[in-house]
Structure formats: C-alpha cells, structure tokens
Amino acid sequence: MSEKDENKNYAADMTDQQITLVDDQGNEELYQVLFTFDSEDYDKSYILLYPASASEDEEVEIQAFSFKPDANGDASQGDLYPIEDDAEWQMVEEVLNTFLADDGTDY
To answer: Model-level pTM?
Structure first.
C-alpha cells in the first residue's frame, strides 16, 4: 500500500463496486473496490481499492483511504482521506492481511 499526501475526489457506482479517482492534475483512473470496513478504534470508515485495469494474475498495489459514509453507510460521493498515522496504517494492513488470508486471493 502507498500513502497519499492529498485527499482524492471520487464518484462511485457501488453496484459495480468501482470508483474513479481524480488526481490533482485532473487525471482519472478507475479502481475496483476490494472492500470497505469500519474501525471503532479510529472512529472512521475505510475503503481499499486496486486498479480496475489489472489482470487476474497481475500483482497490484492496493490503495487504502478513510472516507465519510453517506446515510446508507456507502462510499458513494465525497472525499477520500489519506491515512497518515503509522499505527492506523498498521491496523489497515492487518485487516487487509486477514481479508487476503480468508479470501485466498493474491492481489
């Protein structure tokens, strides 16, 4: 996972589980939602993404952000926020590792 220094804007169609990230230069890239989860310890919601263009046998870089869910608890509109705290990153990585171990999928 890599840290991002800036907030990312996104629009989501959660039925397809895809989000388009727009960087500071206005470049758009489509990402697939791996999963979302909530942390009571940090009182935040998190979303983990990987490039939608990645092939099944390709190793990909997974992006993780915190977000503010809408009234339905979805990441449907708004901003993604960088994870800047090392302890918070460690917690997100532990959740990801548990997910990958349970899923049996290599990303």
So the answer is: 0.75
Domain span at residue 33?
8-103
Helix, strand or coil, per DSSP, at residue 106:
coil
Asked if residue 3 is part of any domain, the answer here is no
107 residues of the chain, pLDDT tens digit each: 433 434 455 444 444 588 888 888 999 999 999 999 999 999 999 999 999 998 888 888 999 999 987 776 666 667 889 999 999 999 999 999 999 888 665 55
Q: Judge contact between 9 and 70, C-beta under 8 A.
A: no
Task: Count how many domains the chain has.
Answer: 1
